[in-house]
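Example record for the data management plan.
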Amino acid sequence: MTPPSIARVGIVAKTNLVAAADHLTRLTAYLAARGLVPVLDTDTAALLPGPRPAETRTRDVLAGEVDLVVVLGGDGTLLGMASRIAQVGRDVPILGVNFGSLGFLTETRIDEMDATLASVLDGTATYDERVMLRAEVERGAGILDRRVVLNDVVFTKAALSRIVEMSVSVGGLPVTTVKADGLIVATATGSTAYNLAVGGPIVHPRVDAMVLTPIAPHTLTNRPIVIPGHEVIEVRPHVAAGTDEIFVTYDGQSGYPLRPHDIVRIHRAERTLRLVKSPGRSYFELLHEKLHWGERLPQGSGG
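Corresponding structural encoding:
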């Protein structure tokens, strides 16, 4: 029997992922056969051959109307839905099904989708509780914007800008002035994303921590640092009046330029995100599979 808490299942595929069409057809039929209501986002429904399902929603609306979300695609698609779920303030788990990309978050393979989904509906699935970050931008006397992210808040320079400068404080105490191409504030989950690409540390997702990682720092003394997850980080960009040199982006999905005297405060979000775990695969096995982490290099490949 399907647990009564799950009655409506949202289905979201990567935009223009034509390869998912057959799987979408099979998935909607499977859910309907179990007496559940499949709700597809509008773009995903367009991938289906023939008439569209009766229930379609935009992604923003869908997040507030379902009890489970199945994402078919890559981590970017999942991050977009994670943010939407956080914004509506609901505890909606996500089952991420990987379609050929690196996929740290969409860790379930397509051949595992049926079994993993069945475990969710039968109440036997296991979940990862992932910490998210809330970012607030203070401009003048008010709050300009509030966002919730799963991976990271990133500060970068404009394409033709020189090195940018930012003052960083933690827990109300000044920590450093970063002179670099940018700065990443990442969750443990986000440590294997952009943070890892620029040389930041891998942090196990069960560790209550945030990572501050400069991007191509101007001085070797600016190094990544791991800080307690309960702290509040403040970033004050040094932006000259009349220029848009520093941009803030959220999970690589959206962002905007910062102005002089803006303050960006980042802290742990009130809610966590529940990710459905792929059966029989630990986090370290995922590192081995995705990054070949811990494997010995072939003989003769070193310096």
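Summary line stored alongside the record: The chain is about 20% helix and 35% strand.
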